[in-house]
DNA sequence: CAGTGGTCTAGACCACTGG
DNA sequence: CAGTGGTCTAGACCACTGC
């Protein structure tokens, strides 16, 4: 009925099982509740691409049958995945693989808002790809991205403008192995969010990210690109983005002009 | 058994009830699931101070009996409150009213980390209260804090230093009505986080906050207080903190020196 | 050991979606 | 209308805490 990858095909976890994995090398607790095991199985299917982005995954009842557990257990697993923005539940319709294309969460990772607060009236950013070239990872870049020094990387530089005013200057580094065929033309041709392009074209889904923020002054090159004076303070935003399994997939260094915009953060 | 406040004493919500509230003026959905109603009741008890900070609330079974619902329903209500950091669950012990004093979440709202990443080795900040005076709310302050212009407000200015280096300059505004008796002496006498002091001394618990972040250059006064040159870019962090019910309770304007520290943010 | 929260189940019914 | 996720219940057992 449901052909699964060879490894743990329909490995129905025995109820109250320990999920053992033996007395492995790692110092893991060596125990996890059933719903965590189910969650891990679903995660595997997501990684393996068994269900494509924006497609529906099987219903809770189906999954319960597949894994030989109750619906409530599957539900709890899905609940967590939905809370992590990996899945999207829609009552009456089903559960879907989350995407960076949905209107509601578009630019989920971009926290810069106009002072007016009205994102709609401002409209989408004008994007300009300055550069897109293949290089080799420096020691610093390699370390952050989990690569080896000298590994192929793709480097992109672009400027985002709002209402005609250049506001963001970004440098991106991507692992060359996973982004074969990405060119400046492809980036320019596309309209939606870049992360959506990564999903559809390269099957790479960014799941979470960390940012380190500082205040800096621009160098002369940066001044020219943003049309500002060297006395203009800027927000430096260094972001590391991760796919499934906390695998780093992108390093992004942004300079944000905060004259008419601000970086919003919610603490809770 | 458990004497409740007069209002909605043991208002056992009828199962599957609509919670009606009539065809009110507001355009609320006019329906909420049982566990949301329970959540609201628990929230009321928290606001009313029925359970003090760091104290245990009744067990799930007790609450289920009180509200005449199943344990699972109470559990779901508590789950959400715990997710919002209002409650803290501890297996085998009970559920507790969350505090800003717990080691794990201390400085939950302070996102500035040393470049070394090691908060421990850096040790706690040295605090210096520059000023603490009673004034009247300007139109701007009043608007943000939900007060009327001219209402009494308490204004505090302080500097935080790490390893002897002044790093943060903060101005705070607090509603005078809720913070009677707060003086520079009291602030200086205290050691723990300021938000913990607010809880124990004034019964004000900050639940969430919003921050607007910009890059700025300091004026001459700020330069003097932070021992920096006017060419040093700083992070401007404007924070509005809220108590229960999204009631604004504090406005805080901070200037962060990001030479040896960075503002950390996790996106997900 | 009793009491707490945490997991799991099975079954009922509700609310929403789309044919 | 059937199928989906969402809520609610009742009861069993597990894991952790502290006496």
| End-to-end gap of chain A | 45 Å
Give the neighbour order of strands across the main sheet of chain A.
5-6-7-10-9-8
- What portion of residues of chain A belong to β-strands? 25-35%
Give the helix level of chain A as a range of percent. 25-40%
Task: Detail the poorly predicted runs of chain A.
Answer: 1-29
What is the count of β-strands of chain A? Answer: 11
Oligomer: homodimer
SSE order of chain A: HEHHEEEHEHEEHHEHEEE
Rg of chain A, Cα atoms, Å: 21 Å
Q: What is the typical, i.e. mean, pLDDT of chain A?
A: 88
Class by SSE composition of chain A: alpha+beta
Overall shape of chain A: it is globular
Number of helices of chain A: 8
Largest interface: A-B, 30 and 30 residues
Largest sheet entry of chain A = 6 strands, antiparallel
Explained architecture:
Two copies of one chain form a homodimer. Chain A is an alpha+beta fold and 268 residues long. Helix content of chain A is 26%, strand content 30%. Chain A is built from eight helices and eleven strands. The first copy, chain A, has helices at 34-48, 60-67, 71-83, 119-122, 139-145, 184-189, 194-202, 220-226, and strands at 56-57, 87-90, 94-97, 112-114, 126-136, 152-162, 165-175, 208-216, 234-242, 248-257, 261-267. In chain A, the strands form three sheets. In chain A, strands 5-6-7-10-9-8 form a six-stranded antiparallel β-sheet. In chain A, strand 9 (234-242) and strand 10 form a beta hairpin. In chain A, helix 1 crosses helix 3 and helix 2 packs across helix 3 (71-83). The longest helix of chain A has 15 residues, at 34-48. The radius of gyration of chain A is 21 Å and the shape is globular. The first copy, chain A, starts with 33 loop residues before the first helix and ends with a strand. In chain A, 26% of the residues are buried. Mean pLDDT of chain A is 88; it is low at 1-29. Chain A binds chain B through residues 84-85, 108-109, 111, 207-217, 231, 233-235, 239, 256, 258, 262-268, and chain B through 84-85, 108-109, 111, 207-217, 231, 233-235, 239, 256, 258, 262-268.
